[in-house]
Amino acid sequence: MTTPFTSADAGAALWHTEGMHRLTLGDFELSAFSDGTYPLDGGAFFGVIPKVMWSRKVAADDKNYVTAGLNSLLIRNGKQTVLVETGMGNKLSDRMKKFYGQPAKLLENLSAAGIAPEDIDIVINSHLHFDHCGWNTVRDKNGNVVPTFPRARYYAPEGEWQYARKPSERDAISYIPENYDPLVESGQMTLLKGGEEIVPGISVETFRGHTAGMQGIVVRGSQKPHPVAEGATRVGHPQDSYASTACYISDLMPTAAHIDLTWGMGFDLYPLDTIESKKEYYARALPEKWLTVFTHDPHVPWAYIEKDEAGKMVAKEAK
């Protein structure tokens, strides 16, 4: 069952305060986990879109800050546990903490669900901005940077890593080398060209716009019967209305408020490419009824995107 997401939901409770969001997609069980929320300037979040328009969808405080989420996706198939994105982590500088705080809730929320760092087999980063790969590493008691998920194989876009080594002055603050360089140097992180299948049914695709190398993570479930965990919602089977594909689209559409073609972030390095990448995504996602997973939406972790009778994009939350 789905319900339309409207501007009235802007004042709703944060999704991660209402219990775990979990569903099955063919052979996969998907669970949404949060690293917390942080304040973000509304103008930066919505770029050239006037406040009189975006404020109908998202509430801002008297300083023009909106609440942004830090959403990770946990994928399990009974054999492997895959974590997509690792949030902001706990290694921000004092200067960055003044802007963003230090939510650092991901490990706590995973632990509450009975998931330890050692349980993670694979970590996938859509790109290498600090709010997407912060928990890749932690500092041990001696101050050394070590993998947070010691058994995991890490994956990230090669183009992102190459760019992060010498970013522009405009976005240098977005990259924290301690989040990824030690993993590349040790060989624990594999750098991807785009289009690779990480495990059967989970692949990556490049969606240029926010950065040149950002990748979406596509999960394709089969039509085989799959046991549903207690409390989970089943999607992606012949008797259901929706197909068996989900995509963690990352910052191409960070929230349900960004689903219109021209609604992008001020952080996008290539805003015209963002529009083209959305067109490419919708060309498949709409007719095939993909589940879209949002990286920064504090109220809606995932939704189905459709066109209404007027041709406007509408997000229908998966319940």
- The number of distinct helices, counting runs of at least 4 residues, comes to 8
The number of strands is 18
Shape summary: globular
Strand order of the largest sheet: 1-18-17-16-15-13-12-11
As a whole number of angstroms, the C-alpha radius of gyration is: 18 Å
Give the averaged pLDDT, no decimals. Answer: 90
Structural class designation: alpha/beta
Distance between the termini: 6 Å
SSE pattern, N- to C-terminal: EEEHHEEHHEHEEEHHEEEEEEHEEE
Strand proportion, as a percent range, falls in: 25-35%
Notes on the protein architecture:
The protein is an alpha/beta fold. It has eight helices and 18 strands. β2 (21-25) and β3 (28-41) form a beta hairpin. It starts with a strand and ends with a strand. Residues 1-10, 223-231 and 233-241 have low confidence and may be disordered.
Report a brief summary of the structure:
The protein is an alpha/beta fold and 319 residues long. The chain has helices at residues 42-46, 51-54, 94-100, 106-112, 130-133, 158-164, 181-186, 271-285; strands spanning 2-4, 21-25, 28-41, 65-76, 81-84, 122-124, 137-139, 145-147, 153-157, 189-192, 197-199, 202-206, 215-220, 233-235, 245-248, 291-293, 302-307, 313-318.
